[in-house]
């Protein structure tokens, strides 16, 4: 460029309108105007070597607007192929006024204000091509110019149609430049420039063809050259390029170039970002296309279940349930995983089921709690349940506290009692009174902690625990949840369910209950927990500690009668689709059912028997309706025939009369029976026997059982409440061993040992069959059996019964059939208190036993027994075994009598 260059003092000028050619830049110019064509022909075309020089001077009009090309496009265009611009002299532009310090070219005046720039660039012709326009045969040229060096215009002259100018070279020589580049400031500026230029090349690298060449240029070329080349490469704004043209000083030039390139770099980066976004959108839309294609293929195959749509629906559902932020984050992660999987892939199903659970859980849904109306709650409890006044009172107290302090962390109520006494239905009444939904979790037989807390998702077939499953089912996060049979959970190798329950019931911990399957905390603090149990003895102490035990004892026969008449019969009739117009069960028949067919503490079996009666009645009613239909159904054709064959439509007034006459004549018997069947079915003893079978309990059992020596009537307590048990003892030749049968626990076995020792030690004193007394001690094996072998039995309360059975055996005297007993025995013959006294007395009463022998120290327990029952029974209190024996035998025993109550 400038360094090898001799600039003539006068040079032909090609105006470039609103464009600037810089040294190092290459442009293609289309010369179409007469002036430029003449310039080319006179200055270039005739020269043989095509090495002609012309000056390119920018000129701009006042409306010139900067219209830069995309920087990347312009750079690429330049670096790879150079670029074209039309010298584009509009007619008006030729002869535009020069800048103020120059004389304007003469001869061509227009109204437009056109300014010549006082500086230009001398350009060498690289290529020249002639064109012939059709049909005018006008000659035009395209000339490719390379900018070489800056010049300043001293004076414009007119040479025929085009201009020439007197010029002076502005760019320094090579030597001067080399000298200038040694300046430290220039060196810093040059480094800065090369650095941004390097950044620019790296950014463009993927698109740049001759990247290596450009990089090499950056390494080798001097900074001042590069500055021009780089700026020339961009279609920057006119002003920017003009400023670059004016930057004659090296420092200025480097500064200007750095500024322009930095500006381009930023623009490129923004453009890059935008294009990446656009590409992102594109790929999204491509995905949509793919999805549509898959859908079309599925449709074609008849496989229409659209998983993607399902997942979208699932996501929408998850968004709508209002999960806490941390759970939502977790769910989104899982959803992303699911999206990446194929439906056939292992793990897809489980991942989906998991997400469905998250979407179905009531994170925010609660039943709207109504203002608790204590009067209404009491009415409801009374209308649902007969008796149980103490229990109802406690429930009302509980509700009153909740009314005053809805978020009160009251104790968990635990109803304890035998089956069928109304524990579950009381809990559901509480839910009704609170206006909340009710859900029952049956915990009977739960031995695995995972049953409560769920399995971790790493297990195949893992599921959430019962608690979370229950909450999902009920659909609200504040139900009344009944933990049924909480005493039947038991620990084993699979963990302790009670410990999980502890967490559930602890108000401090249950805000963040952690189900292993769910793996995110769920707040169960709004749930009202109520528990039921048959007995508290088997419950772990910490669990019991969190609950308030409310005992529901068994019912007396009178209470059962009331419950049956008021609650069970109406409910049972309704359940079977009949009314009391169809079936009447009189009170005496209910009493008989209670006495002869049930021996339970609650009313479940009674309800079952009443249901059997209702079923029998339902069959009758259904048959009757059918027979009525048959009768009337037969009548209609008869009438139709009588109606001169005109069909049913002809049934007029006359038809009605004839029908009646004819029907009675033919089907008189059916009509008559249908009329009598309209009376309600009345249950009587015969019907009881037909429907329920022969009586199961006739009150003679005890008498029959104790008819031989060696049998005693005991009272025991099992999970179903008190029970009457017969203890049978027998002796045979042997070595003095004791055999026990009948599903016995360790404590009851010990009691048998104690009993035998006690009897052996007092054989003589008791005046037992003396002839056998010796062998009793030496060569007799004793076998004691507790009938109902399938029922597990344990506890100390059979002690006195065992002694009585042995004494009966060896004394050869039968015990009284009307007397049952209970009590723990010591070796000294003391009778110790036992539990469940009330239930035991109720059981004795149910079984027709009139006398009960109890340990003296159980006296206080008698307060719980209904007075009506005590009035009908003889209760004997014993301190010592001798007292028991004295009362147990027919005609008494020779020992001190027990004190009478
Ligand atoms: N006092 C009562 N008044 C009216 N109905 C009663 C009464 N007690 C029990 N029942 C009825 O007896 C049936 C059995 O009661 P429920 O199922 O509540 O017994 P439960 O004590 O929960 O038994 P389980 O321990 O076996 O679960 C229910 O239909 C209930 O309505």
From TrEMBL:
Gene3D superfamilies (alphabetical): 1.10.8.60, 1.20.5.5270, 1.20.58.1480, 3.30.230.10, LON domain-like, P-loop containing nucleotide triphosphate hydrolases
Annotated region (Disordered), positions in chain: 87-111
Binding sites annotated in the UniProt record for ATP: 417-424
The entry's keywords: ATP-binding, Hydrolase, Nucleotide-binding, Peroxisome, Protease, Serine protease
Xref: SMART domains: AAA, LON
Compartments where found: Peroxisome matrix
Active site per the UniProt annotation: 797, 840
Name this protein carries in UniProt: Lon protease homolog 2, peroxisomal
Domain of life: Eukaryota
InterPro entries assigned: AAA+_ATPase, ATPase_AAA_core, Lon_bac/euk-typ, Lon_lid, Lon_proteolytic, Lon_Prtase, Lon_prtase_N, Lon_prtase_N_sf
All residue ranges annotated as the Lon N-terminal domain in the record: 11-265
Organism: Sphagnum troendelagicum
Keyword Repeat tagged: no
Recorded family membership: Belongs to the peptidase S16 family.
Role noted for this protein: ATP-dependent serine protease that mediates the selective degradation of misfolded and unassembled polypeptides in the peroxisomal matrix. Necessary for type 2 peroxisome targeting signal (PTS2)-containing protein processing and facilitates peroxisome matrix protein import.
Position of sequence motif Microbody targeting signal: 899-901
EC number from the UniProt entry: 3.4.21.-
Primary location group: other
HAMAP family, alphabetized: lonp2_euk
Domain Lon proteolytic: 706-891
């Amino acid at each position: 460029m400038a360094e090898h260059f001799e600039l003539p003092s006068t040079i032909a000028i090609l105006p470039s309108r609103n464009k600037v050619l810089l040294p190092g830049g290459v442009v293609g110019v289309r010369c179409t105007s007469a002036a430029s064509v003449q310039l080319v022909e006179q200055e270039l075309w005739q020269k043989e070597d095509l090495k002609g020089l012309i000056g390119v001077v920018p000129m701009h009009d006042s409306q010139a607007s900067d219209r830069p090309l995309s920087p990347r496009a312009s750079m690429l265009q330049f670096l790879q192929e150079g670029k074209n611009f039309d010298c584009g002299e509009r007619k008006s532009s030729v002869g535009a006024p020069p800048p103020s310090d120059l004389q304007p070219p003469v001869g061509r005046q227009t109204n437009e204000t056109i300014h010549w720039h006082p500086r230009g660039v001398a350009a060498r012709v690289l290529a020249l091509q002639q064109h012939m326009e059709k049909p005018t045969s006008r000659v035009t040229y395209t000339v490719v110019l390379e900018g070489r060096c800056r010049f300043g215009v001293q004076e414009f002259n007119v040479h025929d149609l085009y201009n020439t100018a007197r010029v002076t070279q502005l760019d320094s020589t090579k030597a001067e430049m080399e000298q200038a580049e040694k300046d430290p400031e220039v060196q810093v500026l040059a480094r800065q420039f090369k650095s941004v230029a390097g950044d620019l090349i790296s950014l463009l690298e993927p698109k740049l063809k001759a990247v290596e060449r450009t990089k090499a240029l950056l390494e080798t070329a001097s900074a001042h050259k590069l500055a021009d080349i780089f700026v020339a490469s961009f279609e920057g704004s006119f002003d920017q390029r003009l400023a670059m043209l004016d930057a004659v000083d090296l420092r200025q030039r480097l500064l200007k170039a750095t500024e322009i390139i930095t500006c381009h770099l930023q623009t490129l980066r923004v453009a890059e970002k935008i294009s990446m976004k656009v590409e992102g959108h594109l790929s999204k839309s491509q995905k949509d296309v793919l999805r549509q294609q898959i859908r079309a293929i599925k449709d074609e195959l008849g496989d229409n279940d659209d998983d993607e749509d399902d997942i979208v629906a699932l996501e929408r559902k998850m968004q709508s349930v209002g999960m806490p932020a941390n759970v939502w984050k977790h769910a989104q992660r899982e959803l992303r995983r699911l999206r990446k999987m194929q439906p056939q892939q292992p793990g897809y199903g489980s991942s989906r089921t998991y997400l469905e659970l998250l979407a179905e859980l009531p994170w925010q849904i609660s039943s709207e709690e109504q203002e608790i109306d204590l009067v209404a709650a009491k009415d409801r409890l009374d209308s649902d349940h007969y008796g149980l006044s103490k229990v109802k009172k406690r429930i009302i107290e509980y509700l009153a506290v909740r009314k005053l302090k809805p978020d009160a962390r009251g104790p968990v109520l635990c109803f304890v009692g035998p089956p069928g006494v109304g524990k579950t239905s009381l809990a559901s009444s509480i839910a009704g009174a609170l206006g909340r939904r009710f859900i029952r979790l049956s915990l009977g037989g739960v031995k695995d902690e995972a049953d409560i807390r769920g399995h971790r998702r790493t297990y195949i077939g893992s599921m959430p625990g019962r608690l979370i499953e229950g909450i999902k089912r009920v659909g609200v996060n504040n139900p009344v949840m009944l933990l049924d049979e909480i005493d039947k959970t038991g620990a084993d190798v699979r963990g302790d369910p009670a410990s999980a329950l502890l967490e559930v019931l602890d108000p401090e911990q249950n805000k963040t209950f952690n189900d292993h399957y769910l793996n995110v905390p769920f707040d169960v603090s709004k749930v009202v927990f109520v528990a039921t149990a048959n007995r508290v003895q088997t419950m772990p102490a910490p669990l019991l500690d969190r609950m308030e035990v409310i005992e529901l004892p068994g019912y007396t026969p009178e209470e059962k009668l009331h419950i049956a008449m008021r609650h069970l019969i109406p409910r049972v009739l309704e359940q079977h689709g009949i009314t009391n117009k169809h079936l009447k069960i009189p009170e005496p028949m209910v009493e008989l059912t209670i006495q002869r067919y049930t021996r339970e503490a609650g009313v479940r079996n009674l309800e079952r028997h009443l249901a059997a009666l209702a079923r029998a009645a339902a069959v009758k009613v259904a048959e009757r309706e059918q027979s009525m239909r048959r009768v009337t159904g037969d009548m209609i054709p008869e009438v139709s025939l009588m109606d001169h064959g005109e069909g049913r439509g002809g049934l007029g007034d006359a038809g009605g009369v004839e029908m009646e006459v004819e029907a009675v004549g033919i089907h008189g018997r059916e009509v008559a029976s249908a009329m009598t069947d309209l009376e309600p079915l009345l249950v009587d003893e015969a019907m009881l026997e037909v429907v329920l079978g022969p009586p199961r309990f006739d009150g003679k059992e005890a008498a029959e059982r104790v008819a031989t020596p060696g049998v005693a009537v005991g009272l025991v307590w099992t999970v179903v409440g008190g029970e009457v048990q017969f203890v049978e003892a027998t002796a045979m030749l042997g070595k003095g061993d004791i055999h026990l049968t009948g599903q016995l626990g360790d404590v009851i076995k010990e009691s048998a040992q104690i009993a035998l020792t006690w009897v052996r030690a007092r054989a003589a004193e008791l005046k037992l069959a003396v002839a056998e007394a010796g062998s009793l001690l030496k060569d007799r094996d004793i076998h004691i059996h507790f009938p109902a072998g399938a029922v597990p039995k344990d506890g100390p309360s059979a002690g006195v019964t065992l002694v009585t059975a042995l004494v009966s055996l060896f004394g050869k005297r039968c015990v009284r059939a009307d007397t049952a007993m209970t009590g723990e025995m010591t070796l000294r013959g003391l009778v110790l208190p036992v539990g469940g006294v009330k239930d035991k007395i109720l059981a004795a009463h149910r079984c027709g036993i009139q006398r009960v022998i109890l340990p003296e120290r159980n006296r206080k327990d008698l307060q719980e027994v209904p007075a009506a029952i005590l009035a009908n029974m003889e209760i004997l209190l014993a301190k010592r075994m001798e007292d028991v024996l004295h009362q147990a035998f027919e005609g008494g025993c020779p020992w001190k009598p027990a004190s009478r109550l």
